[in-house]
Amino acid sequence: MNLKINIPKNVKIILDKLMNNGYEAYIVGGCVRDSVLGKSPKDWDITTKAKPEEVINLFDNVILTGIKHGTVTVMIDKEGYEVTTYRIDGEYEDGRHPKKVEFVSDLREDLARRDFTINAMAYNPKNGLVDYFNGIDDLNKKIIKTVGEPKKRFCEDALRMLRAVRFSAQLKFSISNDVLLSIKELKSNINKVSKERIREEFNKILISNAEKIEILKETGLLQFIIPEFVKTYGFEQNNPYHIYNLYEHSLIATKEIDNELHLKLTMLLHDLGKLYTKTTDKNNISHFYKHAIESSNIAEKILKDLKYDNATIKQVVTLIKYHDCTLNTKLSVKKMLNRIGKDLFEDLIKVKRADILAQNPIYKKDRLLNLVKAKNELEKILEKNECFNLKDLRVNGKDLIEIGFSKGKEIGEVLSYLLNIVIENPELNNKQKLLIIVKNRFLNVN
Predict the structure, then answer these.
(1) Domain for residue 2, yes or no?
(2) By the 8 A CB rule, do 160 and 154 touch?
(3) What is the pLDDT of residues 310-368, one digit of tens each?
(4) Which residues does the UniProt record annotate as the domain tRNA nucleotidyltransferase/poly(A) polymerase RNA and SrmB- binding (predicted)?
(5) Is 56 helix (H, G, I), strand (E, B) or coil?
(6) Mean pLDDT across the chain
(7) How many domains does the chain have?
(8) pLDDT > 60? residue 94
(9) How far apart (Å, rounded) are the C-alpha atoms in residues 335 and 323?
(10) What is the largest CA-CA distance in the chain?
(11) Which of 101-105, 183-187, 197-201, 375-379 has the lowest mean pLDDT?
(12) Separation between Cα atoms, residue 28 and residue 48, nearest integer Å
């Protein structure tokens, strides 16, 4: 194929130096795939016939990142470029990593060990594109296929099953039937993969195309990532406000929310508490009282199990806890602002909107209008700098000490009392007025 890839200057320096010293060298994998697709590669990986020690001898600044597996990192202008010797992998004992690798002199052998055909292409300016496994054809057909037998590839490294779904999400490609069947058969092998690696692939699927969660469900992978989700399949909500079962509702809501990880996770997990709070009245209508609190507890457990960072967990758990709250008055808006702050409040509006869009459309208009009113109230509160937290209260602990209070718990209680007054009566957020209230209420000064 007559293809020209625009290789960055530093990558070309490495290729040229290797080739001028008699060693084959190519860019390989994702950078070739992305270049063919017209995307800008994030990383430029190089594969070469040169042994690691030969690469080390050729370059001034080399980091021994994975020399055991034939990889070193060549540093140029403070940027690192991975250079890996042609290799074949030995036996995969743990379903993730080869026990050993063997260096080889044939590029085809190196490309044959890779996961998917679209990632098994190499290129250099001298020889052009090397595509032994029809990667270009599969790129044109927009399909994910493995290099060789899918079962063999997935038994070698179970993470590849998730990577297949991730590439499908990122590239908007389909997955070949034999790959899907092999994932179904080997799905439990995903337990051999660390939670951290599963989490990272899962995040990319969520952000790239949440609809691909359907593939995780159909192949059975989802039950090993979030076991609680299995119970949502076919879980009917039996309520006029809902026309979808719990799984469908959660997936639609996840698709509708903004493309930020903590928001995607919130919508995916926001209603899991319904599984354990369902009651049905005499009219055969189901209710899910306090499901938001139950959902937040379940979400926290799931996110901790998948090793999410504390900041993300806190955001998601807070949004789920309040996703079902009522925001129909200025006072309710200010009280929620006091609980969660401006940024999370703005996220909460997005969460409630996505939730509404995944419910019965008959009730959509009025509910969305209520959200618009809540957002308008927020803007007015911010525009007028109305107080909704202790930071903006015109009286502080030091002021209370000056009029006779002792340090400690009592000061916190008095400030909290004043804040509640000011939230309801913004015109009272004045130091003199507040101190008069304190003196009359707590110090009996007339």
Answers:
(1) no
(2) yes
(3) 999 999 999 999 999 999 999 999 999 999 999 999 999 999 999 999 999 999 999 99
(4) 173-229
(5) helix
(6) 94
(7) 4
(8) no
(9) 14
(10) 96
(11) 101-105
(12) 10
CA distance 86 to 120: 13
Q: Would you state the pLDDT for residue 96?
A: 55
> Is 395 inside a domain boundary?
yes
Amino acid code (one letter) for 51:
K
Is residue 63 within 8 Å of residue 46, measured between CB atoms? no
pLDDT at 272: 98
Q: How many other C-beta atoms lie within 10 A of the C-beta of residue 325?
A: 15
For residue 233, being part of any structural domain is answered with: no
Of the pLDDT bands very low, low, confident and very high (cuts 50, 70, 90), residue 69 is confident
160 pLDDT band, cuts 50/70/90, is very high
| 99-108 contacts at long range (C-beta below 8 A, 24 or more positions apart) | 101/68, 101/69, 101/70, 103/51, 103/70, 105/49, 107/24, 107/26, 107/47, 107/49, 108/132
- Other CB atoms within 10 Å distance of the CB of residue 432: 8
Least confident of 197-211, 215-229, 239-253, 426-440: 426-440
**Residue whose structure tokens are 């009359």:** 440
Distances (CA, A) of 51 to 28, 147, 217: 17, 25, 43
Structural domain of 433: 390-442
Half-sphere exposure of 38 (CA within 13 A, CB side): 1
User: In one letter, which amino acid is 282?
Assistant: K
Residue 28 covered by a domain:
yes
Domain stops at, among 75, 108, 141: 141
| DSSP states of 356-411 | HHTS-GGGHHHHHHHHHHHHHHHHHHHHTT---SGGG-S--HHHHHHTTPPSSHHH
Q: Are 403 and 443 in contact (CB under 8 A)?
A: yes
Give the pairing type, strands 143-144 and 174-175: parallel
State the Cα–Cα distance between residues 141 and 122, nearest whole angstrom. 19
Looking at this protein, which amino acid is placed at residue 1? M
In this predicted structure, the answer to whether residue 161 has a pLDDT above a threshold of 70 is yes
